[in-house]
Amino acid sequence: MTPEAGAGGEGGSAGAECGAKIDLTTDGKNCGRCGHDCLGGGCTLGQCEAIEIEKNQGRLMKVAVDSQFVYWGGDGTVIAKKKLDATGTTQELVPAAAHEFAYDWALAGLTLYWGNDWQDTGVRGCALPDCTAGASTLISGTNNINAMAYDAQNKTLFWDQSDGIWRKALPGGTAANFIPLTSKSIDNITTDGTFVYWTEYTSATKLSSLYKSPVAPPRSHPWQSIDRTSAALRSTAATSTSAKAPRPAASTCAVYRCPTVPAQQPPRSSHQTTAAVRPWQMPAACIGYRTPRAVPPSSSAP
Q1: How many other β-carbons are positioned within 10 Å of the β-carbon of residue 222?
Q2: C-alpha pair distances (Å), 83 with each of 29, 71, 72
Q3: Which residues sit opposite 123 in a β-bridge?
Q4: Which of 239, 218, 237 is nearest to 288 (CA)?
Q5: Contact at 8 Å (CB) between 104 and 96?
Q6: Whether the predicted model's global pTM rises above the 0.70 cut
């Protein structure tokens, strides 16, 4: 009987159905049972052996994969890649002589980012597929890096600095402090696209804690207001409900806060401050004037 291919070593049946000439204890295509394929690895006593991809690489600390290659790097050693099936030759991306210390890293599209906790400040990296321009500092920083993660869903890179967890939308975003922290050591960061997870180590207690925070836009959100003439949205770029602007002279003004809505559509707001005047009916003089409450026509409120 011709053995069937086993996906990832699954499938097949035990016994001698493969034929008398097949030794199930050593056959890499029928290892331990018919159809149990070791997918390139050897078979010893009916058990698939690990496949050696490369050897003599120095002290390796990180490994990553994409759809075609496996990448590795570490403590001042080579950063390299090879085909996932382990065939062909190893391609050296950054030579060991460059002394790059990839203690944590993230594979983000056509860029490999890394950092370390003692030599470099900021985020180091190189451009794939070949890193022909060499390694360089891709995101400036002031401190060493312990942890890093890439959120493929939101195309955002996260890493730690001494004052917190930082983030940068790739490729062209601006680096910003996402989770401000002090006197804590961030050891690990990961993300599932909805939350960022991290561990904090407190040296005084020698204990760690695990946290998570939603992956969300920067915490300062512009309030939106509606110009009644154009019915289009205008951002007031406000970051605090206590900010003030000159009070409009028009006695018919009412003041609103409302969420972002598509242009030409009335806002659906639960913050209407009077039933008589809707946000899209506000006089142009009112635009940009913000307060958490209404300003009645007869009021002398500031």
Answers
A1: 13
A2: 21, 9, 12
A3: 139
A4: 237
A5: no
A6: no
- Numbered ranges of CATH 2.120.10.30 in the chain: 60-214
84-98 pLDDT, tens digit per residue, is 999 999 999 999 999
Q: pLDDT by residue (tens digit) across 17-73?
A: 677 789 999 999 999 999 999 998 999 999 999 999 999 888 999 999 999 999 999
Which residues lie closer than 8 Å to 154 by C-beta, 6 or more apart? 169, 193, 215
**What is the Cα–Cα distance from 138 to 42, expressed in whole angstroms?**
42
- Longest Cα–Cα distance of the chain, Å, equals 101
Extract the tokens encoding 300.
């002398």
Residue 77 to residues 99, 101, 102, 118, 299: CA-CA distances in angstroms?
6, 7, 9, 15, 72
The structure tokens listed for 27 are 């056959």
**Around Cβ 173, how many Cβ atoms within 10 Å?**
12
Given a contact cutoff of 8 angstroms between Cβ atoms, the answer to whether 281 and 272 are in contact is no
Strand partners, 198: 189, 211
Contact 102, 145 (CB under 8 A): no
Q: Does domain 60-214 have CATH number 2.120.10.30?
A: yes
Q: Which two tokens stand for residue 107?
A: 């594979």
3-state secondary structure of 97: helix
Q: Tokens 């085909």 label which residue?
A: 83
Closest CA to 115 of 84, 131, 137, 93: 137
Amino acid of residue 122: G
Give the total residue count for the chain: 302
Side chain identity at 134, as an amino acid letter? Answer: G
